[in-house]
Design brief:
81 residues; alpha+beta; 5-stranded mixed sheet; 2 helices
Length: 81
């Protein structure tokens, strides 16, 4: 069974992720993406700080809306690099 967690963010104030503890999966959707085009400003990019806050050793897979699933190690490398 999944759990919903409101995370907000610049992409949308109502961004919510889905945690699936039984499968060790965290569904990110597009919560960390930049604001929509009509609200975007120079320098807006992915909110990697939001992703860093969501990384958790209990979740081994991170699935975003527009990319292939990543393992925890791949997600850590992506936000630190």
């Amino acid at each position: 069974m999944g759990r919903l967690r409101h995370v907000g963010g610049r992409h949308a104030a109502d961004s919510t992720v889905v945690l699936v503890p039984d499968s060790a999966v965290l569904l990110l959707g597009d919560c960390f993406y930049p604001p929509p085009m009509h609200l975007r400003q120079d320098g807006d990019g992915p909110d990697l700080a939001l992703v860093r806050r969501l990384l958790d050793d209990h979740y081994h897979w991170y699935v975003s809306r527009h990319a292939d699933p990543m393992t925890l190690d791949e997600a850590r490398a992506a936000v630190e690099g």
